[in-house]
Write a structure and sequence with these properties.
The protein is α+β, with helices and mostly antiparallel strands. It has 2 domains: about 130 residues, no CATH class; about 80 residues, Alpha-Beta Plaits (2-Layer Sandwich). The chain is built from 7 helices and 6 strands; from the N terminus they run E-E-H-H-H-H-H-E-H-E-E-H-E. The strands form 2 sheets. A 4-stranded antiparallel sheet has the order 4-5-3-6. Strands 1-2 form a two-stranded antiparallel sheet. Strand 1 and strand 2 form a beta hairpin. The longest helix has 23 residues. It is elongated, with a radius of gyration of 27 Å. The two termini are about 40 Å apart.
Length: about 240
């Protein structure tokens, strides 16, 4: 089985002027366009599986492959032009709005699908979409790359007269496997320190006891213990 669709672009000559120009067979044009649209829809449905999504992003993932496919056909399959299209799109898309790593991956997959089908590599485009989307679904089902359920972000407020360097050492040694002071922030005109820790609890069942002992040490000021939540604006 050939991975390349042969003769998608044919060279013809104008007898009167002697100029050479490139044409595409109509059946091949509609075949590549239809495959690009179908793969775009598959990618969109896969992205919606177990993900939070917006309608605009899903529509963009679905229609990008046929749009890029037509653009590549219009420039007669020029690799240089294909790279230029990708570069211009990247500049206009990611300068205007930030996206998560998952969104960026889906956008580039849609672009790659459009480029591949526009050049006539239909089988490669099908394999690409099936393989990548299959891997993404497997990673979602297996919770691949997720942080441990015992990992927490701890934010503690303490009065300015307390020394924050070792005030919680005994509590951390009792309840955590490891802990790291990430940030120190001054609040209320410097009267309160807000400490941010990255901690790994020994036993998730002891979380309340851990917070209660922290409250005794920090004069019952604010204590926030939360799961690690990735920032959608960061990779």
């Amino acid at each position: 089985m050939d991975f390349v669709v042969n003769s998608i672009f044919k060279q013809e000559f104008d007898i009167q002027t002697g100029d050479k120009y490139t044409v595409i067979e109509p059946w091949m044009f509609f075949t590549c366009l239809g495959v690009a649209l179908a793969l775009g829809l598959i990618a969109a449905f896969c992205y919606m599986y177990k993900n939070q999504f917006s309608k605009t992003l899903v529509v963009a993932i679905a229609i990008l492959p046929p749009i890029v496919c037509v653009l590549i056909m219009l420039v007669s399959g020029s690799i240089g032009a294909a790279v230029a299209v990708g570069g211009v799109f990247a500049l206009t898309r990611f300068r205007s709005a930030q996206g998560s790593a998952k969104e960026i991956t889906q956008i580039f997959l849609s672009m790659a699908t459009g480029l591949t089908t526009g050049l006539g590599y239909i089988y490669i485009a099908i394999i690409l979409v099936v393989l990548i989307e299959g891997m993404i679904i497997i990673f979602s089902l297996t919770h691949f790359g997720e942080s441990s359920s015992k990992r927490r972000t701890l934010k503690v407020s303490i009065p300015e007269e307390l020394d924050y360097t070792d005030i919680f050492d005994e509590i951390f040694e009792k309840y955590t496997v490891k802990n790291t002071l990430i940030k120190v922030k001054l609040k209320n005109l410097g009267t309160i320190f807000q400490l941010t820790y990255d901690i790994h609890l020994k036993d998730i069942k002891d979380e309340k006891k851990f917070i209660d002992e922290i409250r005794v040490k920090n004069a019952n000021l604010d204590v926030v213990c939360s799961r690690i939540i990735s920032n959608p604006e960061e990779l």
